[in-house]
Structure formats: C-alpha cells, structure tokens
Amino acid sequence: MSNARITRLLAEIKRSLEVARSITDMVYDDFMRDIRNRYTLRLAIVEIVEASVSLGLYILREFLNIKVVEGYSQVFRRLVEHGVISARIGEEMERLVRLRNLIIHRYWEVDDSRIYKEARGSGLKIVEDFIKEVSDYVSRARDV
C-alpha cells in the first residue's frame, strides 16, 4: 500500500476543494458576472470527483482486494458496503458523481446558479467529511 499515493490523492482533493471554496466564497452576483468563475467551479468539482474516485478505487483494490468496480457511483457504494465511509457520505458523493457527469457530458444544460448554491450549502462540506472518513479508515486499516 502506497502512502505516497494516498497522500497525493488526498492533497489533490484538498487543493480542488480550496479552489471551489474560494469561488463559492464570492458574492453570488460576482460569481455569475464572470464566466471564468463558473468554469473554475465546474473544473474544481470534476477534479474533486476524479481524485475521490481514484482514491476509492485504490482503497478497494489495495485494502479490500476488490478488483472489479463498474462505474464511479459504484466506487462509493462499495466503500459504504465495506465500512470505509458512511451511507450519508456515500449517497452525497454519488450526487457529486452525477453532477460531474452533467458537467462533462452535457455542459450546455449545467445550471451554474444551482452548482454555486449547492456547493456553498452542504456540497463542499460533504467532501470534507469524505476526506475525514477515508483518512480515519486508512489509519485504522494500517494499525491492524
């Protein structure tokens, strides 16, 4: 098990979370006024999901010997099944996967106002909770 890989993926998630937070700390009108803000938030969310899925896959493969996972959402379901993360965090991370898919595959239908409001609400807090639960699991698993 690579400490460096886990550390790197957690750092990627945290870095993208900081970017997203800097954007959602803006006043709504300032956020909407400049398209660069909207694109930055979109990309930060995509990067959070991508790094979170990579981290989840690594844990499933290296800690739990699960080699086959079909799709991003299933990564979080399997993490819940094996007690790595709580059901609440798993469900919310699956919501982020759906948002990522919307951003990637149907960008013309993205409602930037909704993304801003959800991220500013509980969206970014969920990512913080995911980081904590995964970090706690990794610490426990290494102690065994």
What does it look like?
The protein is mostly helical and 144 residues long. 81% of the residues lie in helices and 0% in strands. It has a single domain, classed as Up-down Bundle (Four Helix Bundle (Hemerythrin (Met), subunit A)). The relative contact order is 0.16.
CATH topology, what is it called? Four Helix Bundle (Hemerythrin (Met), subunit A)
Relative helix content: over 70%
Total helices: the number is: 6
Radius of gyration: 15 Å
- How many E strands? 0
CATH class: Mainly Alpha
What's the architecture in CATH terms? Up-down Bundle
Strand content: under 5%
Separation of the first and last Cα atoms: 13 Å
- What string gives the helices and strands in order? HHHHHH
Low-confidence stretches: none
Question: Which descriptor suits the 3D outline?
Answer: elongated
Overall mean pLDDT score?
93
